[in-house]
Amino acid sequence: MNLDRLIHDQTPVIPTAEDHGLANRWYTDPDAWVEERDALFVRGWACLGHVSEVARPGDIVPRELMGLPLLMTRTKAGALNVFHNVCRHRGMRLADKPCEGRGRITCPYHAWSYDLDGRLRATPHIGGEKIHEIAGFDRSRWGLLPVRSAEWFGLVFVNVDGAAAPFEDVVAPLAKRWSAWSPDRFAVGGADCRWELEIQANWKLAVENYCEAYHLPMVHPGLNQYSRLGDHYNITRQGAADGPDAWFAGQGTRVYSLDRGPNRQLPTVPAVPPSLMRVGEYIALFPNVLLGIHADQAFALVLEPRAPDRTVERLFLAYVDDAAEDPAYAATRAANLEAWQQVFAEDIFAVEGMQQGRRSPGFDGGAFTPLMDAPTLVFHRWAHSRLQNGATV
Ligand code: FES
Ligand SMILES: [Fe+2]
Does the predicted model carry a pTM greater than 0.90? Predict the structure, then answer.
């Protein structure tokens, strides 16, 4: 794979005046939120988090997927599971915060407890005081309900309705595109590889802003000094309207710098060919994860929509082999995290400003210019294709 192939190995997308964006209600209306949750998150594969969040046996992490309570667990044997975070008895939410070193998940209501494989293990007082079993109640039928899950690039993906095409098929075009960077070589370390922020904007605006390089000169003047707008190219991958294959979009740069200034240079993936050493690609894998890859580092920004106008973003920075943990790279990691924090923080006013603009009847989906907005249009086409279902989108 070389740069030329990357630039041309994609769906050519040229926006026209006929293309229209999603209506404002998809950014502001709580009813649209539920419709969107089912169409864009529940029926396909969405990103729930990073495997490093549930790294050790006994880790339990509750997470919401557009309001649906889910739970990630790591068993003693090292398996990662995802369940609905709800007790099978009377529907109490089970975990409300991350825990570690747990052998069981105990419901805070009547104390039924489940092991981290989901099996129901104890039902205290079910037959009266101090009687913990009762005829006619078969525990083996009342384990936690599993949610279909898959792992790729260190990320945990879920398909809540269980009916989507296999994840490996869905992600195949992106996995192939990025095979030269060997995504398996990257690992996320400790606190200096993570960041979390909350924005007062719809999650889709974070995706849209990520898809384009157009705002570089205005929003990221520092970045634009060494990786200018003209150094970027569009990435557009359009799947079939209702097909299983991946849709993704974003942009790439031809002038990524491996120079760490006064800090130690980071190791690079040995397999990256010279033609890609200075390439960086920034791709939104729909619906909700923003990915970046380079020869010496990668990252994922996982979007957790909390409300139509509120989104939590979790950043995971990954380095090659042991550079994620090695103290020798601590100063480099700290400086690199700070650099990304600055870039992502610069974007906040833009997405929050667009959220405010979505309250205006003077905006009806906007314009997609022929060159700069092609990746953003791919995202809108993807959303349209899944939301249509008779609705006005
Ligand atoms: S609701 Fe969980 S034990 Fe009753
Ligand atoms: Fe930006």
Answer: yes
